[in-house]
Amino acid sequence: MTKNFRNIPSVNSVLESEKIQSLLKMYSTELVTELIRKHLNQIRKDISEKDSKINADEIIEFISKTINERWDEWPKNILNGTGVILHTNIGRAPLSYNAIQAGIRAANGYTNLEIDLSTGKRGSRQSKVQNLLCDLTGAESAIIVNNNATAVTLGLAAISKGKEIIISRSESVEIGGGFRIPDVLEQSGASLKEVGTTNKTYAQDFKNAISPNTGAIMSIHASNFKIIGFTSTPSTKELSKITQNHNIPLLHDVGSGCLLDSSQFGLTKEPMPQESIADGSDICFFSADKLLGGPQAGIILGKKQYIDKISQHPLARAYRIDKINLATLHATLLHYIKNEALEKIPIWQMIASTEENLKERAEKFKIQFPSLIEIIPTISTIGGGSLPGSQLDSFGIKINSNNASKLADKLRNNKDSILGRIEKDTFIIDLRTIPYDQDDLLANALKEL
Ligand SMILES: *Cc1c(COP(=O)(O)O)cnc(C)c1O
Q1: Is 271 near ligand 1, meaning CB less than 6 Å away?
Q2: Domain total for the chain?
């Protein structure tokens, strides 16, 4: 049996085709040629394994499409109609206008990143953000690293290497993406001593477990799950009494870095870093891109003696935060200093949007697209490993169609990519997670349906 090899064009004839010629205007000839060669080899291999009818035009079409997709601009903006405010897959917290401007300043030319302009001497890239964090939380000192996973790893390595860390059995958990507390402890050179049971741990359990080899007590916020019913965990205050008596540090991973009281919006109260510090934790860890509403970063707050020790650890240099994230974090924290977080930080604008306001926006869509959509009440969630089980009543639009998943594909691949939810075979867009100034973009996409 003869196979279809003769339909495979040569590298040169592919290069000369109109489609590929237009790619050559944009991209390196050498790299395009190399990709063509790779694809043709692959096609040859495929045909030798399974004879398939494929002609030269189809091959050229396929190659130009894959090259275009491989090298197109990235990232693409998304209209988030999922109702999930913090979604790791779409970049967690969107930044405020001021934070974006700060990021541009940091990227554009040189800056006073690590230089004191009044003296001309070398300074620390940490100090400006450190000041804001200490002012906002009452902590003595702070250090900023790449994310909370690194923050915890670094903190444990610097404070408790070779020692035992006591953790409640209910908090020895996986935080997400394979970040497991027991594994992190092991990597940091500390060892884990679990106390209590899955549902109940008492202050006395921690007390009884303390030995000369204890390096710290650690508590970890259950940020992505909830144990309900017959449960008990000692408070930060209770734990800090024990650690003070034994002269060991109390470490607290609060997860989300929520600086505002989330209960004012009907959500479960998320632990707040300033409360953790006030209640006696010696070191407090959290993310900057969850309920803080800033860039990816990990923040370690606490007593100066411990933060100094952490800053001097060799891993601190390896985990150093980059200048653009640091600048956007500074601008985000300034919103809290100016008491304007609710108005200026996108995730807090979303959380604080009222049902009336969201319904009004839905009604405007209904007027514009009377037969295409229906107004429906929806439920938004925080997501991103924050406030599990906590929900916000919201409003959205339901788009009429006879095939919701096809519609979802179409909107996802729209010029302004739109994500929504499919519930009971209908496609829903929750308006809470779409900033109101993007309603026009959404309307433009709906016009095309
Ligand atoms: C999310 C989370 C982390 C990990 O934070 P990243 O910034 O994503 O690395 C660690 N601990 C807790 C409790 C969390 O909720």
Answers
A1: no
A2: 3
Q: Distance between alpha carbon 137 and the CA centroid of its chain, in Å?
A: 22
Pocket test for ligand 1, best of 180, 286, 296, 387 (most atoms within 8 A of CB): 286
pLDDT tens digit string along 344-366?
A: 999 999 999 999 999 999 999 99
pLDDT in tens, 385-428: 666 668 999 999 999 999 999 999 999 999 889 999 999 899 99
CA 60 to centroid of chain Cα atoms: 39
Atom 5 of ligand 1, nearest CA residue = 148
- Supply the CATH number for residue 299's domain: 3.40.640.10
Shared-domain flag, residues 161 and 64: no
**Ligand 1 in reach of 171 Cβ (< 6 A):** no
For residues 149 and 267, membership in a common domain is answered with yes
Ligand 1 center from residue 66 Cα (angstroms):
36
Does the pLDDT at position 151 exceed 60? yes
pLDDT band at 257 (very low <50, low <70, confident <90, very high): very high
* Claim to verify: residue 328 and residue 389 sit in the same structural domain: no
pLDDT of residue 49: 86
Residue 149 Cβ inside 6 Å of ligand 1? The answer reads yes
Range of the domain at 33: 2-71
**Does residue 130 line the site of ligand 1, with CB under 6 A?**
no
Bridge pairing between strands 298-302 and 141-145? antiparallel
Q: How far is the CA of 174 from the centre of ligand 1 (A)?
A: 10
Q: How far is ligand 1, taken at its centre, from the CA of residue 16, in Å?
A: 51
Cα–Cα nearest to 265, from 157, 356, 152, 391 = 391
- Give me the torsion for CA of 246, 247, 252, 258, rounded to 10°: 120
**Domain shared by 359 and 432, yes or no:** yes
Task: Flag whether the pTM goes above 0.90.
Answer: yes
State which amino acid sits at residue 435. Answer: P
Q: Which single residue is written with the structure tokens 């209770």?
A: 238
